[in-house]
Amino acid sequence: MSKDKKQEPTQGKELSEWQKRNQEYLRKKAEEEANLAKEEAKGDSGKKEVSTTSDAETSLSEWQKKNREYLRKKAEETKEEQESDISENTEEATEVDPNSEEQKELIADESSSELEEEAAEAEQVEDQAEESEAGKVEKVEEKKVKTKKKAAKASIPAVHIWRAVTILIPSLLVLVFSIYLLTPFSTLKNIEVTGTVETNADQIKEASGIRDSDYTFSLLLNKDKHAEMIKSNHWIESASIHYQFPTNFTIQVKEYGIVAYYVSGEDHYPILSSGTVETSPVSLVSLPETYMSVLFDDEQQVKTLIEQLAEVSPEIKQAIKTIELAPTSVTSDLLKITMYDTDEILVPLSELGKKLPYYSKIKPQLTVPSGIDMEVGIYSYSLTDKALEEARIKAKEEEKKKQEEEKKKQEEQGNQTQSQNQTTQQSQSR
What pLDDT is recorded for position 8? Predict the structure, then answer.
C-alpha cells in the first residue's frame, strides 16, 4: 500500500499526547530492529562470501571465477536495494496508526525474511557451482572407468568373436527349422484347382502326386515337378502351380478340347484334340446338338485325322457330320466325309488338311446335293445322277450275276444228264 492509503485512517483527526508518545516509541523500535537485521545480514553474507570464495577458488575454472564475481556484485546490488526498502519501510512505520502494533511487526518480519531469502539464494548459487564442478569431476572419472572397461572387453580377439557368430547363427537357424518340422504347421497347405471341365479336383490332385503328409516347403520347391506330373492325365494339356503366402497353392489346368466322337453302336467316345480316344463313353444326354462322328478307331489314323483337322477352319469342321473310311485300289486311306447339308466329299486322309479347305470355295457353286471328289483332282457331281448311275450299274451287275447263275445251273443239269446216260449204258452192257 502507498503512504496516502496508510494515512487515510488518521487524516482529519488530531492525535492525543499519549498517541504521539506511542507513535514515537514504535518508530524508534522499528529503526532499531531494522538496523539490527541489516547488521546481521551483512555479517552472514560476508562470512558466506569469504568461506565460499576461499574453498571454491582453488578448484574453479576461469569462467566459474568470473561467474562468481558477477553473482557477488549482483548480491551487493540486491542488498543496497533492500537497505533502501528497509529505510522506506521504517518511514512508513512512523506514519502508521500507533494502535496497529501488528503492522509494525509485519514490516520488520518482511524485511528480515527478504534478507534471509537473498542469503539463501546466494548459498544455492554457490552450492550449484560446487555441484557442477563436482559433477564434471565425477563424469571424467566415469569416462575413465568406462574406457578401462572397454579396453578390458577389447582384449578378446575379433577373430574368435567372428568364429562364434558364424557357428551360433547357423546353429540357431537349424534349431528353429527342426522345431518347425516337428509341428503340424510344416505340412499345412490349402490346395485349390481351377480350369477343370471334364475332370474334377480330386483327379487333378491324384495325378499331381501331392500327399497330405508332404511338407509345405517341399511342395514349394518341387511345384514344377508336380505340375508336370498332372499332365499324366490324358485330359490335361497344361498345368501350373502358383504359391500364395503362407500356405495357399493354386493348381491351374487347361484341358484338351473334344474335337469329335468315335461312334460304336449306341456308344459315343470323346476324341480329344490330342488325338486320344477316351475309354469311357459319355451319356447321350451330354452330347452337343451337333457334333462330328468318326466311324473308325484306329489309334494312328485317329491321331492323323486330328492333326489334319487342325488345319481346317472351324466353320467347315462344324459342318461335318460323319467321317468314315472308303479305301480303293488306288487310295488306301480314302475318307468319305458326309456334311450336314448332305454333301459328300472324297478326300485322302493324308491330304485332308490341304484339300478340304477348297470345299468352302466350291460350296457356293453347288445348287443341289453334290459329291466332291478330291481323290486325284477336284471335281463335283450331282448325287442324284450318281445314285441313278449307281442303281443302273447295280442292276447290270445283278442281271449279269443272274445270267451267270442260270448258265451255271444249265451246265450242272447237262453234267447230271450226261452222267446218268453213262450210268445207263454201263448197266445195259452188263
Answer: 42
* Domains, the chain: 16-150 (no CATH), 188-255 (3.10.20.310), 258-386 (3.40.50.10960)
Q: How many CB atoms lie within 10 A of CB 51?
A: 11
Q: How many Å apart are CA 337 and CA 215, to the nearest integer?
A: 55
Give CA–CA dist 381/387, Å, rounded: 11
Give the pLDDT confidence of 311-326 residue by residue, as tens digits.
999 999 999 999 999 9
How large is the angle between the packed helices 223-230 and 201-208, nearest 10 degrees? 120
Name which of 60, 67, 85 is nearest 122 in CA terms: 67
CA distance 219 to 223: 5
Taking only the tens place, the pLDDT of each residue in 13-26 is: 466 776 777 777 77
CA distances from 211 to 207, 220, 226, 306 (A): 11, 13, 11, 36
Q: Among all chains, which residue has been given the C-alpha cell 484338351?
A: 256
Angle 62-95/101-153 helices, nearest 10 degrees? 170
Global pTM reads: 0.53
The angle at the Cα of 106, spanning 103 to 112, to the nearest 5 degrees, equals 150
DSSP 350-412: GGHHHHGGGHHHHGGG--S-EEEE-SSS-EEEEHHHHHHHHHHHHHHHHHHHHHHHHHHHHHH
Strand pairing report for 267-272 and 344-348: unpaired
Top pLDDT among 384 and 129 is at 384
Helix pair angle (101-153, 17-56), 10° resolution: 10
Instruction: Identify the pLDDT of residue 36.
Output: 78
Residues 292, 295, 296, 297, Cα dihedral to 10°: 60
Helix (H) or strand (E) holding 348: strand 344-348
As a whole number of angstroms, the distance between CA 253 and CA 273 comes to 15
Q: C-alpha dihedral over 12, 14, 18, 24, to 10 degrees?
A: 70
Query: How many CB atoms are located within 10 Å of the residue 364 CB?
Result: 7
Contact 293/256 with Cβ under 8 angstroms?
no
Where does 96-191 have alpha helices with state H? Answer: 101-153, 158-182
